[in-house]
Write a structure and sequence with these properties.
By secondary structure, the chain is α/β, with parallel strands linked by helices. It has a single domain (49-174), classed as 3-Layer(aba) Sandwich (Rossmann fold), CATH 3.40.50. Strand 5 and strand 6 form a beta hairpin. The protein has helices at 3-8, 27-30, 33-47, 61-73, 128-139, 158-164; strands at 11-14, 22-25, 54-58, 76-82, 91-97, 100-106, 116-124, 143-152, 168-174.
Length: 178
């Protein structure tokens, strides 16, 4: 399926979670057998030249696409979790949200020094979470040069922020606006 056909499978919910926001709902895409398969194939085509040794996915929807991509590429999957979810000693990083802060964490024992990872999430908007995840993975010793997304909201500048931090960004589809 083409990126345009995949884009058509993504439901837009107006005024969620706040008035004026156009929420891009991927549940309609992941429920579509051919759409989900094609999305993973598009992500794999972008990931293969990187020669990653593992895939890291950001909780929660990055787990869906990241784990499927890892299976498709024959690689392991490294979960980047919300704070307090890991049962082992973890490293973490706080990052800014539009209205406050959040924290993500990682089990550093899952990373081998110099290991090349590709970072995956469902959507990039401002890039705050993806930048924090790349920084956290690098802190653990990983090499992170590429991040993959199903959706980019380019008007919010996240992909540009990642590129400025030395992380190439690729998305299957893009939606203008917020």
């Amino acid at each position: 399926m083409s990126p345009d056909a995949l884009k058509a499978l993504i439901r837009t919910v107006p005024d969620f979670p706040l008035p004026g926001i156009q929420f891009r709902d991927i549940t309609t895409l992941i429920a579509h057998r051919e759409g989900l398969t094609a999305t993973i194939e598009h992500l794999a085509a972008a990931a293969e030249p990187v020669r990653a040794e593992a895939v890291a996915g950001i909780e929660a929807r990055g787990f869906i696409f990241g784990a499927a991509l890892a299976v498709r590429l024959g690689l392991g999957f490294v979960p980047i979790r919300k704070a307090g979810k890991l049962p082992v000693p973890a490293i973490g990083i706080d990052y800014a949200l539009e209205y406050g802060t959040a924290r993500i964490e990682l089990d550093p024992a899952l990373i081998h020094a110099g290991e090349r990872l590709v970072l995956v999430d469902d959507l990039i908007a401002t890039g705050g979470t993806a930048l924090a995840a790349a920084q956290l993975l690098r802190q653990a010793g990983a090499a992170v040069d590429q991040a993959l997304f199903v959706i980019d909201l380019p008007d919010l500048g996240g992909a540009d922020a990642l590129r400025a931090a030395g992380v190439a960004s690729h998305a299957v589809v893009a939606f203008s606006g917020h």
